[in-house]
């Protein structure tokens, strides 16, 4: 469908660039914004501008944060001797929704995937090794999606940290093989954490 305005067309292009948003949905959203007041549209725009300028990665674990260190790393009530390794921020949100994990996290920013050109050096692995090497970590939990790429990443990290005297565990297979962690329901994910197993090569 040809839109009779280059400005609307440009806005539709931007909205449609978001994952899961088709052009029809993008057009509907843009037309809704067009009907709003200038103040509402400005507030909408400002929210994204401020988000981009003020949201950072936690310097300790890689989580998102308004500060240099995220609220989870700053929370003294959490178990600082346990690190749950996840692929991205969405996995932290999924695990936190279960309210069954009270340790800290480490966000890799992806998983090893040679087909996609992603190698170990592209991920936040070295900082994990540095955290473990300090000696106050007792357990590392692999909570990556149970896919070939996730298992490859687990194995790579395990080889890097097995020299340290720590427990290395992984989620039980309540999370279906081949699925992504962020889509697991809260009960399944909670049980997978509770019944985690020693990591085996």
Give a description of the structure.
With 201 residues, this protein is of the alpha/beta class. The chain has two domains: 6-54, Helicase, Ruva Protein, domain 3; 69-198, Dna Topoisomerase Vi A Subunit, Chain: A, domain 2, CATH 3.40.1360. Helix content is 42%, strand content 13%. The chain has helices at 6-16, 23-34, 38-54, 71-74, 89-98, 126-133, 148-161, 186-194; strands at 56-57, 64-65, 79-86, 103-107, 139-142, 167-170, 197-198. The strands form two sheets. Strands 4-3-5-6-7 form a five-stranded mixed beta sheet. Helix 1 crosses helix 2 and helix 5 crosses helix 8. The model has no long low-confidence stretch (mean pLDDT 89).
DSSP strand (E) fraction? 5-15%
Q: Can you summarize the main beta sheet?
A: 5 strands, mixed
Distance between the termini: 54 Å
Shape: elongated
The CATH topology of the largest domain is Dna Topoisomerase Vi A Subunit, Chain: A, domain 2
Specify the CATH architecture of the largest domain: 3-Layer(aba) Sandwich
Structural class: alpha/beta
Question: How many alpha or pi helices?
Answer: 8
**Beta strands, count:** 7
Number of spatially distinct domains: 2
Order of strands, main sheet, comes to 4-3-5-6-7
Proportion of helical residues? 40-55%
Q: What number is the mean pLDDT? A: 89
Determine Rg (CA atoms, Å): 20 Å
Keywords:
201 residues, Dna Topoisomerase Vi A Subunit, Chain: A, domain 2, alpha/beta, single chain, 2 domains, 8 helices
